[in-house]
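Aim 2 progress. For Outer membrane protein beta-barrel domain-containing protein, the working sequence is reproduced below.
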Amino acid sequence: MKKLLLLSAFAFLGGAAQAQEGFKLGGHIGIPVSDASNASSFTLGVDAAYMWNIAKGLDLGVATGYSHFFGKDNFDDFGFIPVAVSGKYRFSGAPIFVGLDLGYGISTKDGVDGGFYAQPKFGYQMAKGELYLGYQTISNKRDFGWYKTSWNVGAVNIGYNFFLK
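Predicted structure tokens for this construct:
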């Protein structure tokens, strides 16, 4: 009987922990900043992530998506696919959170390199989703010996992610 109760307790707790993890899918719109502001007028994108709850209020997972920068003047459109580790901390007693995605931004345009990807976020947690404000940045440095170059593509974004459990 003790074994059955112990097994039931583990099954219940495992189910409770399982209920905290799941997919997030959403989108964002933003204003380009840094080097991107010279070549782009605005950005639109999609976000996707799978998160695991590892401690009370703390989720870790993987994130990807696509950010499309719309060219202005004589510049073509360009985009990046981030491949990142994602972290999110929800404050107890308040429906707000902070988050950070870190990884690599893969360029979708020939002649444009990918680079280090980071996106800190601040947001409002709801039952079926989250609204966030974030700063997305992809940076790259190249050293050809006699010639060094660096750039930083950034955007201030507002986005919404739906929880798909």
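DSSP finds two helices and eight strands in the chain. This observation will guide construct design in the next reporting period.
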